[in-house]
Design a protein that fits this description.
The protein is an alpha+beta fold and about 1000 residues long. The longest helix has 30 residues, at about 870-900. Strand 36 and strand 37 (about 980-990) form a beta hairpin. It contains 22 helices and 37 strands. Helix 5 runs parallel beside helix 7, helix 15 runs antiparallel to helix 21 and helix 20 crosses helix 21 (about 910-920).
């Protein structure tokens, strides 16, 4: 068993010999190529301007920084071919261990060189468990990394420099050198390292493992050396923050574990927060308009920034961009944007409208199913994807089951009996509400237009009484509202919160007392959504005769309500509440990992603060709310439990802090300058079922066609700046493409460069496009386009290419109407068309089919995507979406492993604890199940290959991304008028049998 010596070699000096050998790895063949290239270059240089010689071109690969030579094993030449196979020895004969005691923690490092350095992916990280002897020693916060060496990046893959001071000429020289050389950038793994903290100063042993199992037991004998302790702690901190940053950038789940660990350890050890802390990509957006949309849309970066601020001890009023101390909410609400009063004129003859719309408050969204059967269709479609319609595209890393949670909160659930009786008692049905924050407690309700009010009321009351009697935590009673009475069923944590109100012939069941009372008020005053000019205009464009399966209307009042100061400021505060609940969960886990027999873990919030597991000012909120614990349940004192927070509409904000007022003032000012009003949005969806053909090419699958019509009306183009000026006028010209084009797109554009309004069009034939990562760099983009079978054209011929200097756009004639341009690009001109492609055979087969035809429906943008089943493009799309899902799958497993390795959560409790932290059950985006592998001592997914530590880089046989299971083709068009913006799409989908 290797043991520590009394050496005090700095951590960074433990792998020098291997690194030095790798840095010298320049083959004789490489030097020969460089010599020949240098001769060619000198010959070319004689004929160039002498100033060219000022810019020398490097002829050696990038070298790693020098490391002081300290003997450490016997290095060998790197072996190509990827990581070693199971059973192959990967550890050198020497193992270096260094440990220094400290307060409150000591620091230790274990390094193992590879006998044979590996090119490409390394053998995987080292792991250690807290199985230390003596038992009083705690092993904490390990961080592992492969020690790697990179030989450099090809010049063409580097960003193109700006012209000036010879940089472009230098880049050209690098490109020539790269093209003449067969050497590629390589990365080698030369060793593995794990660093960790520990308690106490006594010797102990620790098992070191990797994905193949236990490698060895290592004796650790701490020494006392304050200077070395500071140096090693700095090295450990740098590595810990780097690994945390990589995890945060890669994860699909909220990166709360690495964020909490960095913030907590920074506070406990008085270490600096890294510059990137709390600043994700989304937080780089400084435009108040875009930033507001991120808040409203629930962008992950916004929530993560709030969490990071809370974890680091900055209250919501003292964010990373506004580091002021916690303030008292003593100021009145700031002014909302000065919205322009809608100028939509009243119609001379209002269109026919559904009765149910006459009971909807104008500030609510309106999602009408039209019939109970339509509601069941949409619900069944959602249930096919686990209750989350977004899973039709891809699986997320967390299963929130928000639709099911909303049904339980309202106490309105669909069962066999309701399916049977629903059509006989329900005439019409709709969802209404002030917002759609389903993950955190939306202000939402279900509105019924009854065929028989007595039967519907009796059925709902019976269901509510049974539910209340079956659960002691629920109460059911009648309350008075300002405009009527309501029966309310609820629990103290808002898990169930259901108000039922009635106005003949409609009944509303909602989780919002405010929405319930507004329903009663509208029934009395008649000032409903149906009475507004905007809604009547929308109904004139999309009349009842369309018989939409789903009709959705988002009024200007509803959209403006999301930007109301009380609404936005409460949205910020509830994000803080959610972050605080998650922080307490994580702090309890961290405290448990420090527990000993003599010192049990602390769980109370005050004790967690006192012991440094929560920041000192945790819970200091301007609105006086906080987190309280009931056994293992954590709730916000005002908003309730996560996932079913008190609806924002029911939690009015009356006083704000100076920081909140300043933040909202910037938003209001931005909207005053650019958006004087918001435009209503209306969407209609119709469905058409096809009979099943058992002998058809799709093995008798059941298909439906969805026709979607969406409008923004009235539309005010001036609100959208230059974006709304890019399109030409609506046109009835549609391009006819080649029948073997899988993807086709055309646009009628207005451009000063192209001249008068022109139809631009492009198409791609069935092929396997280049990988996105292979298009990084100017040369790579050129190579990728040359291999893509497609074409780009214009009609009528814009002539922009012909106006290029030196005749670059005309090229050399190679056939009738065909010329070859610089770079191998072919151009056809004739019949008013100008068409470009890198592949002349693509032009030859496509040109006979191209034509500009007149159609009935005007539009500026048209496109189509054919059924991808059985095409090469299907495999490419499947692989791209698989790679995203695979990365999220690995990130989910890493999240679970972090709970175990960083916070010491017992294996059997990891998934349950993860659900409490995330507010939803962790799920593998590849469709597998997360399970603990006792041999590898890690969580893995059943969707991974049994011999892999992670998902395969390539989609396995039989894998099909959710999108391709149902997508069977689509067509779409976009039309912009002076006062309307219209989008139409037709999508064919496959349904479960």
């Amino acid at each position: 068993m290797p043991s520590t010596s009394e050496q005090s070699t700095p951590v960074g000096f433990l792998l020098p010999t291997i690194l030095t050998a790798a840095a010298r790895a320049i083959s004789v063949l490489t030097l020969a190529k460089l010599g020949v290239l240098l001769g060619v270059w000198c010959g070319l240089g004689a004929g160039l301007n002498q100033s060219f010689a000022q810019f020398p071109f490097p002829i050696a690969p990038v070298q790693p920084p020098p490391i002081a030579p300290v003997p450490f094993g016997a290095p060998a030449s790197p072996q190509p071919g990827g990581p070693p196979q199971p059973g192959t020895p990967t550890i050198g004969v020497d193992v270096r261990v260094q440990a220094v005691a400290g307060t409150p923690y000591g620091v230790a490092v274990i390094e193992m060189p590879l006998t044979n350095p590996v090119v490409g992916p390394g053998p995987g990280p080292l792991t250690i468990d807290g199985e230390a002897a003596p038992a009083s020693t705690r092993i904490l916060y390990p961080v592992s990394n492969d020690v790697r060496v990179t030989t450099g990046r090809p010049p063409s893959e580097q960003p193109v420099p700006r012209i000036g001071r010879g940089r472009l000429l230098n880049r050209m020289g690098n490109l020539i050198r790269e093209l003449a050389s067969g050497d590629e950038a390589t990365e080698q793994t030369v060793g593995r390292r794990v660093m960790f903290l520990f308690t106490g100063d006594q010797p102990f042993s620790v098992p070191v493992r990797d994905h193949l199992g236990t490698l060895t037991m290592v004796d650790v004998r701490p020494v006392s050396d304050p200077a070395l302790a500071a140096s090693m702690q700095t090295a450990w901190w740098e590595e810990t923050t780097a690994v945390a940053k990589a995890q945060i950038d890669a994860t699909d789940t909220p990166p709360w574990i690495p964020t909490y660990m960095i913030a907590m350890l920074s506070g406990r050890l008085n270490l600096p927060l890294p510059a990137w802390f709390g600043r994700g990509k989304e937080s780089e957006t400084k435009d108040p308009l875009l930033n507001t949309l991120e808040w409203i849309g629930g962008a992950a970066g916004v929530a993560n920034e709030v969490f990071a601020s809370a974890a680091a001890g900055g209250s919501l009023q003292g964010t990373l961009d506004d580091p002021s101390p916690t303030q008292v909410a003593a100021l009145p609400l700031p002014q909302a944007p000065a919205w322009q009063v809608p100028m939509t004129p009243a119609l001379e003859e209002p269109p026919a409208m559904e009765t149910i719309a006459s009971f909807v408050p104008p500030e609510c969204f309106y999602l009408r199913y039209g019939s109970f059967e339509n509601y069941l269709w949409f619900r069944d479609l959602t249930q096919e994807y686990g209750g989350d319609i977004s899973r039709m595209i891809t699986l997320s890393g967390v299963s929130n089951e928000s639709a099911q949670r909303l049904e339980e909160q309202l106490g309105v659930q669909t069962n066999a009996m309701s399916r049977l009786l629903g059509p006989s008692v329900i005439e019409d049905q709709a969802l209404i509400g002030r917002d759609m924050y389903l993950d955190d407690g939306a202000s939402i309700g279900v509105l019924f237009h009854s065929k028989n009010l007595f039967l519907l009321r009796s059925s709902l009351n019976n269901d509510r009484s049974k539910l209340a009697n079956s659960d002691d935590s629920l109460t059911l009673k009648t309350i008075d509202l300002p405009h009527g009475t309501a029966t309310v069923m609820r629990s103290s944590d808002n898990r169930v919160r259901s108000f039922m109100v009635e106005a003949d012939p409609c009944i509303l069941v909602t989780n919002s007392q405010t929405v319930a009372d507004r329903f009663l008020e509208v029934a009395q005053t008649g000032q409903s959504l149906a009475a507004t000019n905007d809604f009547q205009l929308a109904r004139s464009y999309m009349p009842l005769e369309r018989n939409d399966t789903i009709f959705a209307y988002f009024s200007a009042e509803m959209l403006q309500g999301l930007l109301d100061p009380a609404y936005l400021i409460e949205l910020r505060r509830r994000m803080q509440a959610e972050a605080d609940i998650a922080l307490v969960r994580l702090a309890r886990m961290a405290a448990q990992s420090h527990a000993t027999q003599d010192r049990p873990a602390v769980r109370e919030i005050d004790a967690l603060i006192e012991n440094g597991f929560l920041p000192e000012n945790f819970g200091d909120r301007a609105d006086g709310t906080g987190v309280v614990a009931f056994a293992n349940q954590l709730v916000d004192t005002r908003r309730g439990a996560r996932g079913t927070f008190l609806p924002i509409a029911d939690n009015p904000v009356e006083r704000v802090t100076a920081s909140e007022a300043r933040w909202y003032g910037q938003i209001a000012s931005a909207y005053d300058d650019q958006f004087s009003s918001l435009d209503p949005i209306v969407i209609g969806i119709q469905r058409e079922s096809f009979p099943i053909d058992p002998n058809g090419p799709s093995n008798g699958e059941r298909r439906e066609r969805l026709t979607i019509h969406a409008e923004i009306a009235p539309w005010q183009p001036e609100n959208y700046g230059s974006w709304a000026k890019q399109l030409g006028p609506p046109t009835q010209v549609a391009m006819e493409f080649a029948p073997d084009d899988v993807v086709a797109l055309q646009a009628h554009v207005a451009s000063e460069t192209l001249g008068p309004p022109t139809h631009l069009f492009a198409a791609i034939k069935d092929s396997t496009p280049p990988e996105p990562e292979s298009i990084d760099g100017l040369l790579s983009k050129y190579r990728a386009l040359k291999t893509l079978p497609g074409y780009l054209g214009a009609w009528p011929q814009p002539g922009a290419l012909d106006r290029l200097p030196l005749g670059l756009g005309r090229g050399q004639p190679v056939g009738p109407g065909m010329t070859r341009l610089i770079g191998g690009l072919y151009r056809y001109t004739g019949g008013g068309f100008s068409v470009l492609s890198f592949q002349p055979e693509v032009l030859d087969t496509s040109l006979p089919h191209l034509s500009a035809n007149e159609v009935d429906d005007p539009a500026q943008v048209r496109g189509r995507i054919d059924n991808l089943n059985g095409t090469q493009l299907e495999g490419w799309v499947n692989q791209q979406l698989y790679e995203r899902a695979a990365a999220a799958s690995r990130a989910g497993a890493d999240f679970l492993n972090s709970l175990m390795s960083q916070l010491g959560v017992p294996v059997d409790d990891v998934i349950d604890e993860a659900e409490l932290v995330l507010g939803g059950r962790p799920q593998c985006p590849l469709g597998g199940e997360y399970q603990f592998d006792p041999n590898r001592r890690r969580f893995i997914s059943t969707a991974w290959s049994s011999d892999q530590l992670g998902p395969s880089p390539y989609a396995p046989n039989g894998y099909q991304t959710p999108l391709l299971t149902w997508f069977r083709g689509a067509e779409f068009r976009l039309t912009q008028y002076t006062n309307r913006l219209i989008a139409d799409a037709t999508i064919e989908i496959a349904r479960a049998q």
